[in-house]
Amino acid sequence: MPDAQHPKVEIAAPETWVDRYGDYLYGYAMSRLRNPDLAADCVQDTFMAGIKAFERFDGSRDIKFWLRGIMRNKIVDQIRKSIKEKKVDIDTEDEAILESFWYKYTGIATTNPDPWQFNPRKAYDNTEFWVVFETCIDQVKEPARQAFVLRVLEDQTTEEVCKAMDISANYLWVLLHRARAQLKIALEASWTGKDVK
Amino acid sequence: MFTCKQISKVLSNEDYQKLSLMSRFLLKLHVKLCLFCGKYNRQVMESHEMCRCYKEHEDNLAPVRSRMDELQKDQLKALLSSHSSKVEESK
Lengths: 197, 91
Prior knowledge:
The structure holds two protein chains of two kinds.
Chain A (H helix, E strand, L loop, with lengths): L16 H17 L2 H18 L9 H23 L6 H14 L21 H13 L4 H10 L4 H8 L3 H23 L6
Helix pairs in contact in A: 1-2, 1-3, 2-3, 5-8, 6-8
Chain B lengths: L3 H9 L8 H13 L4 H20 L12 H21 L1
């Protein structure tokens, strides 16, 4: 029964955060950053920011998700920083893709990709599929993966991602297109045949 | 949202997850039935749908994700306890 005066869910003291949420947050950060050091830094930054803002925590939701909310910002910052240090280079191959795709894309996209080798929707209830999905995201090459993480997984707007990566909207579209294509290839390589059970 | 061009635009904006149920339904209907943009956009749509489901299932994956190094954990614990006591003192 929740206390009427303190309608709080149980609030874990900061000392216990590492044991309770360390692995969860670290796993989350790893799935986005793919780098153990950066992920550990992110968790540390999150806990630090959490302690500072702890007074403002109102207990309206689980502290795990509150901390995760803080960490999502840290992850976006981290990706932005790593992009700044290692500039995204747009090579000629990319230019060519951009030109050809946009030519096709001005009206109706007419590219004709191969159909899926398995029915992905059948696998959605299978946790194992999402584990595979995660490893497949890891196989997408930078900077397409970073664009994908920022735009699709972390819900940044197109403008925010373009600004963070210092690229045009057209190029972002190419990156996301490429991320999707690579993801599909990786998924087909590792999942085809597994869903027939 | 009825023309192929609009459909392509919505899908390329990657705002699929923010669409209302009704527009998502209209979009799906168009892509399923359309001979012209269907082949391509169907896959884009499926990919969006997949990412949406991934985010829903994501929390179930926590147990199989990589774990933090024990040494790092201990360092972090020490750091946390020193900081939280500082915050207490400053009150």
